[in-house]
Known about the structure:
This protein is mainly α. It is 71% helix and 0% strand. The chain contains 30 helices and no strands.
Amino acid sequence: MFQRSPPFTLFILVFLTGILYWAGLYGPFVLDDPQTLELAKVPNLHWDTLWQALFLNETGPLYRPVAIVSFILTDFFMGSSPFAYKAVNLCLHLLTGVLLFFVSLQVVNTLGRYSLTLSKQVALLTTGLWMMHPLLVSTVLYSVQRMSILSTFFMLLAFHLYLLIRLDKAPHRFKENLLTLGVIISWVFSILSKENGILFPFLVLAFEMCIPKNSKDKSFKMLASWALISCILMAASIWYYTHHFPAFEESFKSKGFGLSRYALLQSKALVFYVKSIFWPTLPSLSVYHDDFEKVFNCSLWFSLGLLGALLGSAFVLLWRFPLISLGIFWFFIGHALESSILPLEPVSEYRNYFPAIGLLLSLVTLFAEIMQHGFCQRWIPRFMLLLLAVFGIFTGIRIESWSNEETFLLTEKLHHPLSARAHIEWAQYVFERGDYKEALRSLETAYALNPANSGPKLDQYLATCLIKEAKPDLYQKTFKSLTEDTITPYTILVLKALVDSQQSGKCLSPLQESESFIDTALVNPSLSFKPKYRAVLYQLKAEVLIQQKALPHAIIALDKAFHLNPKQLEPLVEKVQLLIRMHDLQGALITLNYLKIQPGSRLPAINKRMERLEAELQ
């Protein structure tokens, strides 16, 4: 296949990848998809509506507006079904694969010292292995990870434009300025899709380092310039980290890690990523990796030694095999942000969407070098095609499990029986379908696997309340868990579900119990540096107090909710409603006027409620 013309071969790779992924487009939303994609639901594309939707979200420190705009456009023109979001993700993945081919060809032509035919084959094979890699399924079919896809696309585009400037033998001033503007815009778009885009200068620096000394393209001035930009970014990152260190440290504690333990765990995670890129096995791949420390048997010293050897080999091979070195540098640069000392989930597959390119480029280059020296010239191409076929088969099998919610959850639970999250998701699925005993068993298992998470125990309390099989001692156990264990987003979602079920009459447990759960969660040390979580809890407390007719206390709780998270205006809207109900029309009018000047007051959901309240006051 790779002996044919590159455009035809590239078309075949894109077509096969699209066919492989088609079944997965019918699969469900996963993890935080529903909550994040709620931001995309706007009634129109007016500038003020878009502006407030973009910069009132909490997806990242820079708000990720490029990704959010893409979600809004998807929802507005294609609807809010999982198919719509996943279809756009797939199109972007295929487009990124086409761009990767051109970037790979530029890099191979510069650093590879191969014939034009062999250079094209290396670029095509790297692209094919990447597009069909089973590790990337959990990025392409995980709707909100369009952020990673877009960031990678724009970073590759910036790199492609940079290489056009850098390798132009007869530069034209206007063309160079235009391409430079394109590099800057693409880089900014990459950062505004996901913060990983900030790593672009480090990728360029690695490329400049890998250009051989005797090459006509070598420029020490260019190398020094990008080294200076990289140093400035590193200094800014260190300042940002130290400035936010108390909050980061508390976040580590809430996840059950110390900073040093987490940093060392990342060395094992990187080894797992290397293994998954070179030798992916279906049981080890998952969106649920909270069982990572239990199932990945790899010593710390082995991990550090392997990573040190891999990075050291990149420097040793720098002058003789620069393409292999660049691929290794590419992998480590791609993980420099998310797999470092930021308080994120220890292991996430989608972090490899960009870094995997590097190791696959190194692998293909290694076999190309062996062929270049006259060894195994017949067998290596066959082996690489076999590897591509194996990746395609594994990807197809994995995508099939993602095509149906029940199959997906069963597969995840089967492959990761020590994952508390897999059991929680399965419990919620079977509970909605009436299998209450199975749901309670799964929640018991989840709590036993991760007793530091208060969510499963609270979920058991809610489940027994809904099916009217309350256990006498479960309230005390739940209260103790909320007092001693970590309050997670899952805990808060279950608390909200509990309050909602009491309001609707589905759960008949005393309101005082819900209030005590909320009060003890509010003073839990794990929320010391999480004002947004506490804001949600105060809003829930207000709902309980309203049901108890304690309206003045409810207003106090709503005030606390707003001051903890001023971006969320629902507490102010509810406060106006309560003041009207209490016949304090002057206080309601003052609050409504204050609400009007807040950022976000023009968002459709808030604006409609404000109009109704204003009509009531008139």
